[in-house]
Amino acid sequence: MLTRPNPSVVIFFLILLAVLVALPLVAGTYPVKLMTRVIILATFVLSLDLLIGITGLVSFGHGAFFGCGAYAVYFVSPESEAANVFVALGAGVALGGAAAFVVGAFATLTRGFYFIMVTLAAGQMMFSLFHDTDIAKGSDGAFVNVKPELTFYGASLLDFSDWRQFYYVCLLALVAAYFVLFGLVRSPFGRVLQGIRANEVRMSALGYDTYRYKLAAFTVAGMLAGLAGALFASIDGFVTPELFNWHQSGLAIMMVVLGGAGTLYGPIIGAFAYAMLEEVLKSASIVGPLIADHWRLGTGLTLVVAVLMSPEGLAGFLSWKRPRVIGDPSGAPPGQNISSRPLRLAKALLTSGLSKNFDGLRAISDISTVFEANKVHAIIGPNGAGKTTFINLLSGAIKATAGQVLIDDQDVTGWPAHRIARAGLGRSFQLTNIFPRFSVRENCALAAQTHKASLWRLRDRPYQAPEARAIDRALSVAGLTERGSSVAGRMSNGEQRQLEIAMLIASGADLLVLDEPLAGMGPEETQRVVSLLRDLVRDHTIILIEHDMDAVFAVADTLTVLVQGKLLAQGSPDEIRADRAVLEAYLGRQAEVGAVA
Amino acid sequence: MISRRHLLSMGVSAGAASAFGSCASYAQSGPLKIGVLLPFSGTYAPLGEAITRSLELYTNSHGGKLAGRSVSFIKVDDESAPPKATELTTKLIKGEKADILIGTVHSGVAMAMVKIAREDGIPTIVPNAGADIITRAMCAENVFRTSFANSQIGRATGDSMIKAGLRKAVTVSWKYAAGEEMVGGFKKAFAAGQGEILKDITIPFPDVEFQSALAEIASLKPDCVYVFFSGGGALKFIKDYAAAKLGIPLWGPGFLTDGVEAEAGAAGDGIKTVLHYVGDLDNPENRNFVDAFQQAYKIPPDVFAVQGWDAAQLLDIGLKAVDGDVAKRTQLNAAMAAASFNSPRGPFKLSSSHNPVQNFYLRELKGGKNNYLGLAAAAIADDTVGCKLV
Amino acid sequence: MSLIFIQLLNGLQSGLLIFLAASGLTLVFGILGVINLSHGSFYMLGAYLALTLTGIFGDVFLALAFGIPLAFLCGFLIEFLFIRHLYNRDHLQQVLLTFALILIFNEFQQVVWGSYPHAIPAPSYLADSVRLTEGLSYPVYRLALMAICLALALAMGLVIQKTRVGRLIRAAESNREMVEVLGFDSRMIFRLVFAAGTALAVTAGMLAAPIESAYPGVGDRVLILSFVIVVIGGIGSIRGAFIGSLLIGLADAFGKVFMPQFSSVMIYALMALVLVMRPTGLFGRT
Q1: Which of residues 148-167 of A touch B (CB under 8 A)?
Q2: What pTM did the predictor assign?
């Protein structure tokens, strides 16, 4: 999770800030104008880090919102007068944000490669819009004849034509933007974004509507990019469709990674470093004519080296220590005595005629069954019987072709995964699905946050105490209290499984659907988890898929046998063990002889 | 050619000299720094090269000096990209501390360049970009043009076409300011002569896929087609047009053919153009210029080379008037504004808004060469509407 | 009416041409799982290769005969040197490294060929044009181009569907690990596929050179359009790439005539529409 920067980083930036503040007092127009450009670039790249580094959205069309911001100033500037500074910058933010909202609404429906391509195409579309049509002045670009200013009853407070004043405005904007984003990312909203980057599927399964969060992040980033663009328009008073070009977006991504994605301050360093590098490589007076003529080659090679060598970018070089993952600063007191947990009626799950076809293959055929509350139900069957498909149907990961799923009396058929999660169903996956880079507490914190999950939730304080209690309780029940600050990815497989269960408890789900929770565990760990499950049943309903027959018979209250997508039998372990059809289809004759420990 | 390393050493010594506060003497001694902002890449690269060659030819034939001062050209490639223009111009003026600015080809780039030049006051000569506005609303004491204004040529061509009896036209050009003005000037003159414009086809700059446009022309059946393209795009259009065998006469401003006559070959036969220059103009200045250029570069000069040559001539006149002291900007500008001399294109003088007042000639392309058919219009000036100098 | 007919031809011609490039991209991404932004650079290099080789051999088809094996070889080499390091990296790093490749290739092109645009002549026996409608003659080379692209498309389809190599490619596309477990050297398969993708892009660039000329930015448009087509058609689907290419080609051709200002915008709108209806493309895997 995003933490406060190391002292070495803070010192570095204080020095940089001092230098930047002093610059106009000692240098002439050219260096100051150059720095103004770099500062605006840094603001733009900062906004991209919110997407790439924090939320994990690799957007290849971010330059389009920068361009929108720039053109917004052109649109609101009268022919031969100055626009008001607030109007101009406000227009930039508004147009950038609006465009980002529209593009984001489509783009965040997709993932991975498709997302990259859609954002790339969206950027190009805006380019075509401004280059080919008569919206503005087309391929030649347009002039902002008089730069924005701020007057108060005739007295000029701010005039963007004054390059010194303008420089300080841009610097102020960058610093303010950093602090705003920093606060945003550390807020509950921001933590969800980081969770989405770490493991979107898990976030969805925990109950977050990831689409909304991604769209919100996309829009905020677009607004900030629009602001940067609006400032850009005032540097020379000239805007062109080339601002929308995907090459600009590509360069921006480069700077984010060069500086260190996800740190917020890293990309700022990246922008400065890249701009300086380009300026140096282009100056024949420094590097000689040969290199200056082919500066692009130098940039390309530098990039390759930078990406291959340090995954954390320049920010990684800057921090003396490896950034440690610090736990949730809640400092809540240890939880209550858990062994006296009250019995509580959990939820029951019912399916009726549930079926799923995949392009003609009947994966699940007409399954009608009841999973009663406060019991452990094991689903067994040969490989390929459709067990995982079945629980995917239950948790909403896939949609049924026919039939119904009900949780208590609520019909949840067709609901998306996050909605079913909110209805009280928590699931685990065949491959452990946690947030490996976060600490155990942080994992649970994300789960606990779903109680009051809201897009607008920016403040921690009101919910800290109850959530801390939920986390402590979950850790205690799962037996992980000692491991609160351990990095999840470094624990053993068994402990990670326990963490998954802890997260489900912390999220408040009381209908747990577990896909092979004992997979890959040794006998001792298996025993621990089996005890945990038997303990959980006091206030949870548990449905699990397992292959370890000994464990199944030890832990389950009912067995449900699936063969080739059909329900073959359902009943108590003894009933199933004696069932002829099941024996033939699955257990084989040996089971008659083998006894359960 | 002055190398950048040479430039660096000269620049360093000049800088060291001026660092001791001898501003006046610096402005008069040391090399004269001429910032040259032209396209050296992209579709307009041949034009940039032609202009540069003329500039160098002129200075070399004067012993590498103008008004007694040695000259160094600081060349910057503007890539015909308007977005970089402001940055590059600022770099030349403030970074490299150029004394004079010469540029550019693409109108969008020129407009951005002139905007900064006007604020700075640096004497600026535009050797090609024909954007009307440069010698209209954007005119300034220190901004001069030795080429033409888009509407000026468009009008001259339109007049010629009316005289030739054509009455129904379709226009084709790239969608950018220069295209719009070339077509605009033409349409005004054509309409004034009772001509009818059937359609204006525009193509995004700098696309060169013309098949759709050709299909449209075929279906519209005009008696002539007025076209403005330049450089590589012009060559492609000529070839594609010939392959389509439409049988409709092709007209345009001279830029359609200049620089690409030889490569066009048989495909270009019959194309009629109007321009302020033809290679076989019979006057002594032109004969000398053509010989010198042919000898130095092995190919005949084109209109762009002439514009570059005249830029050098104009600058020379101005510099001589102030004895090489570029700090005396007001006098320098006044001398250039009042200049009148013989150009390879004929008599050359500037209008009050600093645009050339010149003759236009009708030519026909045949066998890879533009043949002079006659005078299309004499001493045409462009509108000066919006210029504050007038 | 004749305008519509000619535009139909134009649309088919540009669609078939870009199909070559797009099919290479969809193969590379579908099987190798790598986003290769430098795909457009291969197209550009093809155009310049045509320039040089046609200068030597005088005929663009002879140039092809040399150019294609050369492209194959280069593709092999590039896969070996760069691309194979990308297989296990995330999308962001792939995007960045292949973007860096673009910068390097662009610079390479500048150094070797310079920045002037160059025209490449069509072969003399195809240089003429045929009268297709009352007022317009259509260049024969373009018709020949359509035929060649169509033939290549059919050949590709046959190879993928009916040969052993094709079966292997289809298998690798749906389950890479399985193919390895079965004993096939997936590294060679990947190298082959990448080389084929490169060769396709280069071929497209070479074939298009006589009608497009060679200039530094010629690959950009092809790259974006190829990606749009892959998104519309579905990753890994050659059939999808074919349909997508034709759709885009026709939309572009008719857009230019009836909505000239918005023809480019329309293409992206088309992509958005397809995504809304089928988020993984027309023929993509769900």
Answers
A1: none
A2: 0.80
